Structure formats: structure tokens, C-alpha cells
């Protein structure tokens, strides 16, 4: 005997109201965890766009996160991070790391110190969580970009003609070694320069360097607003959580 699924008119109003309320609560919780999976804005002379993608189609968030935080001294913090793993199991440590990163940044610590403190936090926790991250501070008055990384792919610098890898400062995966050394690099962003921060979910599986080169090729010579550039990238290339933050200096 066959059965026919009830249409919306046959579902009791109380059930539909409950379902709508649960969806609203889920949306609000997701927003509280990470404000948006897609962000576009003009901040301190930068045009900034961010996209995050969850490998689990039932979830809007995963183990990758981003941070955009104006500081009291006028600097702007930009970061992306990636908890090893994806899905529900990666969300809880992602939340802790994202908010800890924001707190350390708000205290005025430089990028290398922020990563050092995150590493200490993970090493002292009773878990086996590991993560990668890159943190950058941008000074609008001078265009100076300073960054540090922890086991993370290199930043990509783009102008109208080419894309280059920025130097990779020393820094291992977070949560592995109790007292590693994190170093910093710096570069002045000129008007028209764009910098891409991304997680390894943006890199096609295979040879790591080849994957980075492919990503660089996809943003080479592409003009326009950073949001339009991100629209042309494949966020599902690695079948993993993925996040990319692109900032372009316009002044």
C-alpha cells in the first residue's frame, strides 16, 4: 500500500511554527558562531571579501573560520584558520579558537604572539585538536601588512599582472609542540595590491605546490572587486571545509 507525503496544508500549524522556530534558532546560533559565510565590505582603505564553505551540505559552518577585527589603534586584523577535520566534530574547537584569537588580537598582541598563545591554549587543553592559521595586521596609514602563520599555506599577493607567494614565516601546526617559535614577515601593500588568505580546502588535492599554483592562476589578472574574484574560485575543489579572504588596497 502506497502512502502520500502530506503537503504543507496538511501539516498542523503548531508543527510548522515549531519547525520555523527551530530553523530560526539554528540560524541565530550559526550567526553567533561565525557572523556570516559571505562578507563584503570596505574597511580602512581596503575592499574585503570573505567566503566560507562547509564540506557537509547540512551545515553552514565547519572547522574553518575567519576574523576581521578593527583595533583601537587603527590597525585591522585579518585571519583565517582551519581545525584539522571537518563537520560537527570540528565546530566546537573552531569556536574556541576563533574567539580566543579575537580576544588576543583585541589586547593588541602582534600576529606571532597571537599564534603562540593559541598554541599554548591548545596544548594545555585535554584534547588532540590541531589547527593551522594565518594572522595579519594591516596599518592603513602606511599600508604595512605584518603576518605570522602556523602550519598554514602561504599568502598570495596579486596585482594587475601577476600573483606571487609572500614569504612564509616560521611556525608549526597549532597544538603539537608546547613552546615553538613563531616569526613574522611584513610587506607594504600598494594601491591596487590584493592579498589572499585561504585555508587548504581551497587547494586541489595532489602536489601541494601545484595546488597553490593552480589557485594563484585563478586569480592572476582578474580585476574588479574582491567579491567578484572570489565568485570565480572553486570552494569545493578539495571536498573539504574551505575559507578565503581577499583584501585589496584602494587608498
Describe this structure as you would to a colleague.
A six-stranded antiparallel beta sheet has the order 1-2-11-10-7-8. A five-stranded antiparallel beta sheet has the order 3-4-5-6-9. The protein contains five helices and eleven strands. It has 251 residues and is of the alpha+beta class. 29% of the residues lie in helices and 27% in strands. A hairpin with a 4-residue loop joins strand 5 and strand 6. The protein has one domain: Phosphatase 2c, domain 1 (4-Layer Sandwich), CATH 3.60.40.10. It is globular, with a radius of gyration of 20 Å.
Number of structurally distinct domains: 1
Shape: globular
Between the first and last Cα atoms, what is the distance in angstroms? 69 Å
Largest sheet: 6 strands, antiparallel
* Number of contiguous helices: 5
- The strand count comes to 11
Radius of gyration: 20 Å
Strand content: 25-35%
Mean pLDDT: 86
Computed structural class? alpha+beta
Low-confidence stretches: 1-6
CATH architectural designation: 4-Layer Sandwich
Oligomer: single chain
Strand order of the largest sheet: 1-2-11-10-7-8
Q: Helix and strand string, N-terminal first?
A: HEEEEHHEEEEEEHHE
What's the CATH class, please? Alpha Beta
CATH topology: Phosphatase 2c, domain 1
Amino acid at each position: 500500500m502506497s502512502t502520500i507525503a502530506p503537503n504543507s496544508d496538511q501539516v498542523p500549524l503548531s508543527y510548522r511554527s515549531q519547525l520555523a522556530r527551530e530553523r530560526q534558532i539554528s540560524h541565530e546560533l550559526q550567526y553567533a558562531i561565525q557572523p556570516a559565510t559571505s562578507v563584503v565590505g570596505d574597511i580602512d582603505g581596503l575592499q574585503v571579501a570573505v567566503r566560507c564553505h562547509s564540506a557537509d551540505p547540512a551545515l553552514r559552518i565547519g572547522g574553518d573560520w575567519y576574523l576581521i577585527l578593527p583595533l583601537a589603534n587603527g590597525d585591522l586584523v585579518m585571519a583565517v584558520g582551519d581545525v584539522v577535520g571537518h563537520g560537527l566534530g570540528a565546530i566546537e574547537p573552531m569556536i574556541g579558537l576563533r574567539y580566543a584569537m579575537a580576544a588576543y588580537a583585541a589586547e593588541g598582541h602582534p600576529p606571532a604572539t597571537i599564534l603562540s598563545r593559541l598554541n599554548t591554549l591548545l596544548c594545555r587543553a585535554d584534547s588532540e585538536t590541531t589547527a593551522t592559521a594565518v594572522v595579519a595586521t594591516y596599518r592603513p596609514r602606511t599600508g604595512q601588512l605584518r603576518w605570522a602563520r602556523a602550519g598554514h599555506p602561504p599568502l598570495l599577493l596579486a596585482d594587475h599582472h601577476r600573483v606571487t607567494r609572500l614569504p612564509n614565516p616560521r611556525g608549526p601546526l597549532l597544538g603539537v609542540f608546547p613552546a615553538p617559535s613563531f616569526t613574522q614577515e611584513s610587506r607594504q601593500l600598494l594601491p591596487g595590491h590584493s592579498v589572499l588568505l585561504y585555508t587548504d580546502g581551497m587547494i586541489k588535492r595532489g602536489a601541494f605546490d601545484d595546488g597553490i599554483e593552480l589557485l594563484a592562476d585563478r586569480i592572476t589578472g582578474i580585476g574588479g572587486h574582491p567579491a567578484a574574484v572570489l565568485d570565480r574560485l572553486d570552494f569545493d575543489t578539495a571536498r573539504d571545509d574551505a575559507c578565503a579572504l581577499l583584501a585589496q588596497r584602494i587608498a
